[in-house]
Amino acid sequence: MARAQFSAETSGSGEFVRQPNRFTGRVTPDSDSPPGGGPDAHGRWPLEAGRYRLVWCRACPWAHRARILLGLLGLDDAISLATVDPIRDERGWRFTLDPGGRDPALGISYLSEAYLATDPGYTGRVTVPALVDTLTGRVVSNDYPQLTLDLSTQWRSLHRPGAPDLYPVGLRDELDALMAEIHRDVNNGVYRCGFAISQAAYDEAFTALFARLDALSDRLADQRYLMGDAITEADVRLFTTLVRFDAAYHGHFKCNRHKLTELPVLWAYARDLFQTPGFGDTVDFDHIKRHYYGTHPAINPTGIVPLGPDTSGWAAPHGRG
């Protein structure tokens, strides 16, 4: 069988099985802890503006979600931002973009230092996004699905005036079901294609991915966004995969039935979001390509980063709305 990119996350049948999220603390306004305190008995950290730091990578779709929400909700001043290098070494995500190679707020060179300060026995893969407490240096959460939902709900008192409701109460059941399908078949589906090490595992993931993209195209044919006429968390989650599709997933992960630019409805929808403040201005195609093509030696052993595709089309009129 072929060599796996992440052997600890590969099943016996050659399927990529993503590791669970280790840190699942939550920042909430109903925490029993006083300001400056740690998590209460229920794992709830106190809601405090300026205390927590979001560690993200411009290349990572899971982290990109949280970055988009900070801007859309006006939380940029409440939660500080740390950006890691798109290229990992053997110790993982690095703060080499900062002077001296250390994050100025956390004082660390590698995100793994915060992971080990929180759990000295941690041996899993270090992932972004990670919400880190600047007072203790501990990781509050790397639970990316819950983290973004909490930004919409638990941090509401610190939202900017007029911030969008990305997780409306009346739509949550439908949203949760839709986002679960998108996660399984699209967000994680591209990884299940790219990291598969058996033909059967790849075939299954590829078929599910494009069947879901076809269904989403049908859904979006007569409405601007996934839930109608307003952006929700589901759109954010789908966008971060679509914006990487032609630059990385089509070639690098063998998701090549069609390019995004060959799927008219999804291509127009993705451009619509890209041109919405808070979306396209957080995209870095250089970081995306350098990360994917430069850090997966089992898939791309030469490390050559492609010069294409042409990204100028993202600015073309989308004709939606």
UniProtKB/TrEMBL annotation:
Q: Name one GO molecular function term.
A: oxidoreductase activity
Q: Which Pfam families match?
A: GST_C_2, GST_N_2
Instruction: List the residue ranges of the region (Disordered).
Output: 1-43
GST C-terminal domain: residues covered: 165-295
Which EC numbers does the record give? 1.8.5.-
* PANTHER family assigned: GLUTATHIONE S-TRANSFERASE OMEGA-LIKE 1-RELATED, GLUTATHIONYL-HYDROQUINONE REDUCTASE
Q: What class of enzyme is it?
A: oxidoreductase
List the keywords (alphabetical): Oxidoreductase
What name does the UniProt record give this protein? Glutathione S-transferase family protein
